[in-house]
Amino acid sequence: MTENEQNSNEDKAPAVRKAKTGAWWKSVSNNVPEDASERSESKIPDQLVTRENEQNEVAPLQIITPQLPAESAAAQSPLLLVPAQSPLSQEKQSGNEIAETADSIEDKPPAKKKRRPRRSGKKRSKPEEIVKNDVLEEGELENEEASDAPFDEEDQAETDISEFPEKAITYKLLINAEEPEECRIALVEDGRLESFHVTTVDREPTKNNIYKGKIVSIEANLQAAFVDIGTGRNGFLPFNEIHPEYFRQDVNERSRNLIAQQQWKKLKIEEVVQKGQEVLVQVVKEVTGNKGANMTTFLSLPGRCLVLMPGSDSAGISRKIVGEERRASLREIMSEFEIPEGVGYIIRTASAEITAVTLQRDLQTLLSLWEEIKKRGQTMDAPALVYEEQDTVVRFLRDHFFPEIQEIMVDTQESLNNVNTFIELLPAKQKNVKVRLHRGTKPIFNQYNIEEQIESIYKPQVALPSGGSIVIDPTEALVAIDVNSGRTSKNSDFDETIFLANMEAAAELARQLRLRDLGGLIVVDFIDMRNKKHIRDVERQVKISMKRDKAKVDISKISRFGLMQISRQKMGAPIEKGSYRTCEFCQGRGVVRSVETLALYYLRRIQTGISRKSIARVDCRLPLDVAQYLLNKKRAELADLELKHKAKIDIIPRVEMKPSENQIDFLETETIR
Known about the structure:
By secondary structure, this protein is an alpha+beta fold.
């Protein structure tokens, strides 16, 4: 086995869940590395806490990011990532393949064709005819190979030269934190909104917060526990997210043998944990609807360069860091640092050009943060918040900043200071970004025409450049996206215009899913296409566009009904939930009953209630327009009811009532108002 194979095997080794005795977070270790005191002189802001995995690694946003197919072992590992080939080498390789193909076509002798019988005695110019036939044969050959060859989206993506822009792309980061109730961050690519993050007072993020909780119930059927973290709603803790350090000491012999053999799936949660037990948990998924937050006891403390994983001895490097020499040098650098036992790490993508000094400073900061979290976890009474994420600006810069951003615009002095502090921690090659304070009379988003693009996020219909549109309809079970051709179908070439609309929709739907943060099952109804090559091109365009997404994505092929299924990881509640509330008139349906329908509905209720015995009076307090309709259009019916049942019916209009509100009282005796 060569040295490269050994290194690759080390990278692919899965994280080991070790079983120890006692709660590892309860034992405070005062053995801080010696370099900690020396590094403490340069104060660094606390890094924010997020749960990191290979899908959450943020690479520089590009139009296309070709990658080699990941091996199955690496795809299943949550920590260690397989190195991919660099985009530059892939571009060179694809160019060489194109050149070789062109050379082979030129060297190939033209195929002989059967000579057609001449209709006239005139001779045609033979050289010109031969050139035309050669070109035709080459085109036919290419189309035949494209249709019969097996489809490989990675190879096709690499050779798609049109995806690489000729001009440089301008990236700007706009931060609007002027109002204390809301903080908005927009990433703009050549004036087009590509990423949007918002935090409001009503929707404070709890993801990645660390709590000291108490197990209040254990559900054996679900193999999960519910943890009280003091937020008013219990968190959901699956059994596979419980660290072996929290297992009981008095387990039976069977469970002890299974733990020793690391056969976690055969264990029963009620035998290894108990009600009332205290645990240190981290939120991995925020509250959505009626579901509580998803929790884990496998903590992760990310910095700019590293992700520290207490309770784990695994070590990994992001697969987006390419080059075996660089990966080997990072391993060597980390081996020289003093890392406490039982603490693992992942080297993030941002460490591709980081020096050893910066890497060590980030490590010492995270180790100090972990010691503080352990101390607070021991002294505080459950339930309690042990560590809270910092503001949106610092968290976004840590997880989403990439060197291609040329300019950062802020509108508050506090945000400016946070950005400058973050820029100072970057390597020298990444400090070329300009940081400016917005001083214009217009708000910062209106100055750069971003406000209208943000409003379009909340609209169901999104226009396409060629005149078509896509309609996005989120439901409880899935997200339905319909592609409409619109004015695109007015052109003469029907197949080409439909193909153009589907290609534009494929690129736009990926952008809308990122902006709206829609997850779960997504069904896309493309316009029916007859050409199989067009169908493959649309599938490839969807995959290329979705490569910029941080969430895990699984894409199916287009079925014979024109449907494509996309499974996207839910990163959190949709962005619409934080800015909009359910309509109090329609209760989320989007429509309300007409006045006539409501009036007849209330009239039938009056007929049913007054038919009972001993009803002397009916008081009906109804919305204004419904009450007016009954008094004007149904006066005769109300009079007949009063005469037939010898009761009095009062219709009382109420201006303050909503269309869905009503109050109908059936009184047995006459009351004095």
